[in-house]
Structure formats: structure tokens, C-alpha cells
């Protein structure tokens, strides 16, 4: 993953960094769901209990749908937060 582009002032753009973080969380959520399904079906790590797969699927779904929304809400800019140009 490449570094976020700098803003015109030369400082890294916090919005770009936050965007990359949110996308990484979503990608990890998808990976957890896929690995969890494979474990639950017995196709990956056969000695692992299927319950571990179900836990990973649930964790992945939370990472996929809830965490990005919470991060976006936390990082939402408010009026007066941005400096006037």
C-alpha cells in the first residue's frame, strides 16, 4: 500500500490516511469471513473446531459493516474544524 499523497501545504492529508485505514479494515473483514467459512466447512485447518470458523465469520461481518461506519462517524469533520483558506 502506498503512502497517502501530501496536501498542497506539504503535510500528509489526514482524509487520505483515514480512507486507507477504513478500506484496510473492510479488506480484513472480508478475509476473516472467507477464512471463517473455510474453517467452518472443514476445508482449512481441519483439526480446528467449526465454532472457530463461526466466530471468525461473525468478527469479519462486524469488521466489514460496523467498524468502518463507526470510524467514519468518529472522523467526520465538524463545522469550524477546518481552517479557513
Helices and strands in order:
Blueprint: H1 14-41, H2 50-75
Helix pairs in contact: 1-2
Describe this structure in words.
Helices cover 64% and strands 0% of the residues. It is an all-alpha fold. Helix 1 runs antiparallel to helix 2. It is elongated.
Short structural description:
With 85 residues, this protein is an all-alpha fold. It contains 2 helices and no strands.
Mean pLDDT, nearest integer? 85
Oligomer: single chain
The largest pleated sheet is described as: none
* Helix and strand pattern: HH
Approximately what portion of the residues adopt beta-strand conformation?
under 5%
Name the overall outline: elongated
Radius of gyration: 18 Å
User: Portion of residues in helices?
Assistant: 55-70%
Number of helices, where a helix is a run of at least 4 consecutive DSSP H or I residues: 2
Distance from N terminus to C terminus (CA atoms, Å) equals: 31 Å
The number of E-state strands comes to: 0
Low-confidence spans: none
Structural class: mainly alpha
Transmembrane segments: 20-39, 51-72
Keywords: Membrane, Transmembrane, Transmembrane helix
